[in-house]
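Extended Data, panel c. Modelled sequence:
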Amino acid sequence: MSVVALALALLLGSPRWGVVPTRADVPTAPVRVAIPDRAPVTLAARVVDGARYVSSTDLFGALGVEMQWRPSTGELRTRVGNTPIRVRAGDRAITYGARTLRLAHSPRRAGGDLLLPEEFIGPLTAAFLEAEPPVPRALPGGTALRTVIIDPGHGGEDHGAEGPGGLREKNVTLALARRLAARLRGDLGCRVVLTRDGDIAVSLPERTAIANREEADLFISLHANAAPARLAAGYETFVLSATASDAESRRIADAENAAGREGSAALASGFLEQTLQDLIHAESMEESARFASLVQQSLGVALPSENRGVKQAPFWVLAGARMPAVLVEIGFLTNPAEAKRLGNTNVQEEVARAISRAVRGYRVELDRRRGIAAVPGSRPLSEN
């Protein structure tokens, strides 16, 4: 098993949200809940009408979170840090702070208990990230994560994916990158460098070369997806591997690699896997998988779409990075509904906030593992 596969297995023990058995009598694996800086929790799961559910009593009890369950009204209330959460039996809409989110499946009664669908774990994890203690500011010697490279995909004559009304991937990723950069600088005090800050062409290897020259601690490549099927939807986060998780991941990687001359040549020569294997820095792979899982969990609050999970694929743009590196596909521009959403500036701000929250959670976790204490007076993300 590769280092990436091992890391993903450890971090993402349960199947991806949205990939569930289709018959109620099919046995299902336990659900593994991984909250940063806490011991993972494994819960029994059951399948109801093709969806995986966990007991709310088991879930909140294992996490040590108090809840108020009123069987007479079918309403459950809880609070994680400063975030109140309210769900109701039979209602896919949940209240998360001041926002309303929609789950893929409705909570269900089961005797005197309330069953929660597996995708509820995403918003719950995000609430824990927001409830973390103040984040360290990027002061000399004060944190293990100081410099972040943001890579807006495509640019120049390479438009990337295109959606209805002429919406182009290169423009969406640049707008999102600028918003994310502003949040990381203002909220976390990070030094941020964009691989491009205009409509210019930057080669795939040059993007990670910039990250290496800047001695970055984290590399985030932003993209929007495309698919032959117009109804394909969802967000996913990739880490580098010489082999892909599945055929669809390989298709996406091939499409992105073909946008650059170097990746296109490697594809044509048949030496892509061999070359990538030589460029993969094993030490960064486990950290990449850790950060990727936080990105996926946090995006679940910002995007009312399918969580397609953390995957691995041979992306040329991630090759050679000497730091944790991920590629985030925020949605499908070929899906009219998702294209409309991703072109909305308010949604772009929510996505930037979600990724910033993941960076914050990863930074707190990384500093704790390295024995670095938070700087007093830092502002917690939940105040933003």
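Confidence is low (pLDDT under 50) at residues 1-26, 134-141, 261-275, 375-384. This feature is highlighted in the accompanying rendering.
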